[in-house]
Amino acid sequence: MNADRSTSRRSYLCRTLVLLAATFAAHAAFAEGPQSTPSIFAPAGTPAASIFDLSLFVIAITGGIFVVVAGLLTYAIVRYRHKKGDEKSEPAQVYGSTQIELAWTVVPVLIVVVLFLTTARLIFAIQDAPRPKKTLDVTVIGHQFWWEFHYPKLGIVTANELHIPVSSNQQPQAVFLKLYSADVDHSFWVPQLAGKTDLIPNNENVMWMDAKHPGLYVGQCAQFCGVEHAKMLLRVYADTPEEFAAWVKNQQQAAVVDPQVEAGRELFARQSCMNCHTIKGTPATGHYGPDLTHLMSRETIAAGAAPNTPAAMKEWIRDPDSVKPGALMPAMHLTDGQIDQLVAYLETLH
Questions:
Q1: For the structural domain made of 2-83+95-127, what CATH number should be given?
Q2: What is the spatial distance between Cα 178 and Cα 161, in angstroms, rounded to a whole number?
Q3: Confidence (pTM)
């Protein structure tokens, strides 16, 4: 029995050490820059890098504690395993030892204090960081189950895909986000760029990020907000200065008016689509759903649940629940011909 317990303890220790080694190996395996899945192991912004350094510090301390405790436990199991004749003897008693009781009281308190002060210092350092001369202000509104982005100084409103300029040592530029919720609690989290920040109804929260490498950074809502919480995805595009300027110029334009898709445009206006969505330059001024003025400039639809392709768009309009079960967009019960007309119109919204 004792031999089985000793084997089990050693096996547990080995599995834990392998897990820690895999964690550090995963970090080493990630190259600098964007990743295809949310990752805390490849920070690409100042807040994310600071949080990652803190996590390594915590892992080092807790890992050291584990090694010491597991080592002592393994030693005790092996050294004092049951032997013949032990029934008549009693191990040494340490009850009442002031030194030992002080040690296992003071040392944990000191460890907790160190972790608390280090974490608090990092939180305040991130929150109170000075604003660079060049900053971009963005207002983020969380909806069930999509993201709305306002660029107040640029006059741009878009959805689900946030574009920001890259920050470099020569031209440092940070993005400051004001976070609001239109309904329930949400949480904005792009792990490679910054930590989690909640969006709370009737409350303003703030955060900032500075992407050091161009590319796509993915994240999602990190607070359960309803049926489709898991598919409330985030895509942050860090653009070069030239790419960002071109994107801004395009987003500031009104919607394209193409006479070849007049039937689809009229269908959009006749249906309840215009009551939920805005298309700049048209009578459609709804705010319940995403702004569609430049819909085709996005790579995904339904907050990242599907690619932005004609086939996916048709299925999304025909039956939103088949693409994103629990989505609040209603099925419009259109004929196949009407859906084709509507998609043809939406495809002109670049």
A1: 1.10.287.90
A2: 16
A3: 0.83
Question: Looking at the domain that runs over 134-251, which CATH code has it been given?
Answer: 2.60.40.420
- Domain ranges for the chain: 2-83+95-127, 134-251, 259-346
Q: Identify the residue whose tokens are 């530029």.
A: 173
**Contact in structure between 328 and 305 (CB atoms under 8 Å):** no
- C-alpha separations of 218 from 26, 114, 221, 253, 264 in Å: 18, 33, 11, 27, 33
> What is the amino acid identity at position 74?
T
- Taking the C-alpha atoms of residue 160 and residue 230, their distance in angstroms, rounded to an integer, is 14
For the domain covering 259-346, report its CATH number.
Answer: 2.60.40.420
Query: CA–CA separation, 285 vs 273, rounded Å?
Result: 10
Mean pLDDT by 10 residues, the chain (350 residues): 47 46 42 68 94 95 94 90 74 76 90 95 92 91 97 96 93 94 97 96 96 95 94 96 96 92 93 91 91 96 95 96 92 93 95
